[in-house]
Amino acid sequence: MIEARHLHKTFGTTRAVQDVSFSVQEGENFILLGTSGCGKTTTLKMLNRLLEPDGGQVLLNGADTATIPAPQLRRGMGYVLQHTGLFPHYTVAENIAVVPKLLHWEKDAIQERTATLMQKLGLSYSEHAHAYPHQLSGGQQQRVGLARALAADPPVLLMDEPFGALDPITRDRIRTEFSELDEFKKKTIIMVTHDVQEAFTLATRVCLMDEGRIVQMGTPDQLREQPVNDFVRTFLKL
Ligand SMILES: Nc1ncnc2c1ncn2[C@@H]1O[C@H](COP(=O)(O)OP(=O)(O)OP(=O)(O)O)[C@@H](O)[C@H]1O
Ligand SMILES: [Mg+2]
């Protein structure tokens, strides 16, 4: 279980995240939703200590993450960055292998895992494993980003707009394929999106944010049926 308690983060005079608290149960797909700049990425980055909060705590299975060394924490939490964040000078296979290598997996095991994941995510190993990110389409790069996050089979997956920057048709296809993978079904996932339909399709619970704060949190049905204010109604186009 992951619990955020009263998280705060300020950049200069920008109060990016203010008093954000939630808890995510094992196996949930928890989706942070909101307009650009509302604090989604900042919240996600505080969960695995890519950013340290100015106030508040994150607990992972009851342990304060501030006491867990950041590299160890991140190995248990796959992270899909906004705009893929692939290493440009690493091949596709090298990008996918980053965490298994850190964990000193055997070379054969790494290659087998890489090939399996590429196949699952619809990427041809023979065609793409030794290509560089810039030689792939945007959709293919996003698949590599997903494969990299899944490589060491972490129990928790943090995903920041994993299907962003794609045309609506490709986005829909990749999202559907991904949601049908066993990996997606069994992992605890915290995902960021600004796309209402995407959130409502994938989420067990949605956390709608505005200006650094949580406006409403609940199942898609709860938000649809009991919006707490006009912001929620407008955002969800109810
Ligand atoms: N490193 C930083 N330095 C200064 N300001 C920052 C930094 N990171 C984020 N901010 C500011 O904090 C606020 C929240 O940013 P954040 O990236 O969390 O938004 P977001 O909800 O992920 O937006 P988007 O949907 O556009 O990705 C914004 O006003 C942003 O400009
Ligand atoms: Mg963001």
UniProtKB/TrEMBL annotation:
The keyword Nucleotide-binding applies. Residues 2-236 form the ABC transporter domain. Keywords: ATP-binding, Nucleotide-binding, Transport. One of its GO terms (biological process) is quaternary ammonium group transport. It holds the Pfam family ABC_tran. SMART domains: AAA (SM00382). It comes from the Bacteria. GO terms for molecular function: ATP binding; ATP hydrolysis activity. InterPro entries: AAA+_ATPase, ABC_transporter-like_ATP-bd, ABC_transporter-like_CS, P-loop_NTPase. Belongs to the ABC transporter superfamily. This is ABC transporter ATP-binding protein. It comes from Chitinophaga lutea.
